[in-house]
Write a structure and sequence with these properties.
The radius of gyration is 34 Å and the shape is globular. The chain has one helix spanning 2-45, and strands at 53-64, 67-82, 85-90, 94-99, 105-111, 113-117, 122-133, 138-147, 152-162, 166-176, 182-192, 228-230. It starts with a helix and ends with a strand. By secondary structure, the chain is of the alpha+beta class.
Length: 231
């Protein structure tokens, strides 16, 4: 009798353990399935940042009161609308040419990448940014901000200004959007260049001789930490 009672207790205990293990396994399986389902639902319902508009080899003209403000040309244009923020991306570069009230070209800008924030009327240009003004002066940098509303451009990165007779390098720059009045915050060097531009004449019935350009006089750069401003 004692042995039978003992066996009954052992069997009863084994049944309870089995039931507990079964419930635990079911709970784990249910939780895993629920987690997987939730993950799948989240992945399926997560909005993708896809462009609402896409164009290739795009060209356009921006006008104001019937007058051309600037023209834009780009290999690829992507327009996004994300959480109420509207912006246009130019992943393969962009070229913009600005005009004055007389419809004459006053400046141009090109870059390997750019983004336009529509509501803010603000542009950001990156990688091989080149700005040229009406005098032929060029600004070279890797990052530039253009605030169209405030009609100004600026950067905190390294800059190089190439002019007819000098090359100026520094860090940081502010300017009007036509790059007519610019200021380098921290000038690193000024290189003066003088080139003889006298035209070469040839005698009639003689082959044209192309002379090698004379080597310009290039003094040593003048290092300074003072800001330089051009108007």
């Amino acid at each position: 009798m004692k042995i039978q009672k003992l066996d009954s207790k052992i069997l009863h205990g084994i049944k309870q353990i089995s039931i507990a293990v079964l419930f635990m396994g079911a709970a784990i399986l249910f939780y895993a399935c629920e987690s997987n389902n939730l993950a799948e639902i989240k992945a399926f319902s997560a909005p993708e940042n896809l462009p609402v508009q896409e164009a290739t080899n795009f060209q356009t003209t921006y006008t104001d009161s019937g007058k051309i403000r600037y023209t834009l040309k780009t290999p690829k244009l992507l327009r996004f609308e994300t959480d109420g923020v509207s912006y246009t991306e130019f992943p393969q570069g962009v070229e913009i040419v600005k005009y004055d009230a007389q419809q004459k070209i006053v400046s141009s800008i090109r870059a390997d990448y750019a983004k336009e924030f529509v509501k803010e009327a603000k542009w950001e240009a990156k990688n091989n940014v080149v700005v040229t003004n009406v005098d032929g002066d060029s600004l070279l940098t890797e990052h530039l901000i253009w605030e169209e509303k405030n009609e100004k451009i600026y950067t905190e990165e390294f800059v190089k200004i190439i002019r007819e007779d000098q090359i100026i390098t520094g860090v940081g720059l502010t300017s009007d959007q036509n790059m007519e009045n610019w200021k380098i915050k921290n000038v690193k060097g000024i290189l003066y260049v003088t080139v003889n531009k006298e035209p070469k004449t040839t005698q009639e019935n003689q082959p044209l001789q192309i002379a090698q350009p004379e080597r310009p006089d290039i003094p040593k750069p003048q290092d300074t930490d003072k800001a330089i401003q051009f108007k």
